[in-house]
Design goal:
Length: 138
């Protein structure tokens, strides 16, 4: 139950972060002037990393553990769906978002928002999965 609770907490946290970034933070990047954008973006990347690395690792490790050591009351489909969704967020982060951030300028914000949709939707779906797991486990 501890692994499920930690995974649920990390997933729900990242879902909130994902929606905040999608709706507020990334769109506001377009308001940063070109002369200060590089400094702003460097600070954004450094500080965001501090906030999201630990929960993302907990979410990934917990989701993998729930597949390998699944509590009997949790259906295998939910465990596998959770793992697939967290893998989708990691792949999207590594393949889309991180490379896009490396060459980001103020004119690229729309592409950043568009590319982040997959992660936001995957975290949202994963929240539904972990809540369903919690319901099955109780």
């Amino acid at each position: 139950m501890t692994v499920l609770l930690a995974t649920a907490a990390a997933t729900l946290f990242m879902t909130g972060v994902g929606w905040f970034v999608q709706v507020v933070h990334y769109p506001l990047m377009g308001s940063v002037g070109a002369e200060t954008f590089d400094l702003y973006h460097e600070a954004h990347s450094r500080l965001t990393t501090r906030v999201v690395v630990a929960p993302m690792v907990v979410e990934l490790a917990g989701s993998a553990l729930l597949v390998v050591q699944r509590p009997a009351e949790i259906g295998p489909g939910l465990a596998w769906a959770g793992l697939a969704l967290v893998v989708a967020t990691w792949v999207s982060t590594a393949v889309v978002q991180v490379p896009r951030h490396r060459s980001l300028g103020p004119e690229d914000v729309r592409a950043l928002v568009a590319g982040n949709r997959l992660r936001t939707l995957a975290w949202t779906a994963h929240s539904g999965v972990v809540l369903a797991m919690l319901a099955q486990a109780s």
